[in-house]
Recover the amino acids of this structure.
């Protein structure tokens, strides 16, 4: 209910709570409750005869300052998010699980399609081979950077230091995730789809790994730049 053009009354409080580690869903719920309570206080001041500006100022003072409002949340350990309480776990161990989870989507899709054709006794049609090779290509190039982006977004939600998404990116690069597929020649049956975690071999493999590593680290670099613009203190 604040006047148009004025900053949101709890913006600083929101940033303070997120930076301190309070889970975003708890912050949203708390600020929504405060906004409703503030609206009621403003209306009460208006009913008492104060104009809009004075009513807002008096209502905000009656609600309490940011220190008191923040302490009501910071004193409750159950409200802190897992990324804030154990970032080493979330950004050090979870990236591999997240990558495997994302990889499962195209693999399950291909398995279902392949299973249907296997029951009919026919060899894989050309469109299926093209689909498989395309998904393998996208998986090798897109899945690690996409997973790293998810962890950068997670860090941004909690305003965590930039080193944590960087650690996630390094973990994803080091494990050397790769997919590969092959099919026999015409009029032959079978084919294979493999998923591995290892360093690539050959010059082409290393060049691809370096390129994917750069793309995987990029979200952390962009996140660090965003933190520097929004917060003068380095992350």
């Amino acid at each position: 209910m604040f006047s148009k053009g004025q900053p949101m009354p709890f913006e600083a409080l929101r940033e303070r709570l997120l930076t301190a580690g309070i889970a975003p869903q708890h912050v949203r719920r708390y600020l929504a409750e405060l906004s409703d309570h503030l609206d009621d206080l403003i209306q009460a001041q208006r009913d008492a005869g104060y104009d809009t500006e004075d009513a807002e100022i008096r209502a905000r003072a009656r609600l309490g300052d940011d220190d008191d409002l923040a302490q009501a949340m910071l004193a409750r350990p159950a409200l802190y998010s897992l990324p804030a309480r154990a970032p080493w776990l979330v950004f050090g161990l979870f990236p591999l699980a997240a990558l495997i989870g994302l990889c499962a989507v195209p693999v399950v899709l291909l398995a279902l399609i392949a299973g249907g054709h296997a029951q009919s006794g026919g060899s894989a049609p050309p469109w299926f081979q093209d689909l498989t090779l395309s998904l393998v290509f996208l998986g090798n190039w897109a899945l690690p950077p996409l997973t790293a982006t998810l962890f950068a977004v997670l860090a941004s939600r909690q305003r965590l230091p930039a080193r944590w998404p960087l650690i996630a990116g390094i973990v994803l690069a080091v494990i050397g995730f790769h997919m590969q597929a092959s099919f026999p020649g015409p009029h032959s049956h079978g084919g294979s789809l493999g998923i591995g975690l290892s360093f690539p071999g050959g010059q082409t493999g290393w060049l691809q790994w370096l390129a994917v590593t750069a793309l995987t680290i990029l979200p952390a670099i962009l996140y660090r730049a965003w933190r520097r613009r929004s917060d003068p203190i380095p992350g």
In short: Strands lie at 177-182, 192-197. The radius of gyration is 26 Å. The chain has a mean pLDDT of 85. Residues 89 and 132 are 33 Å apart (CA to CA).
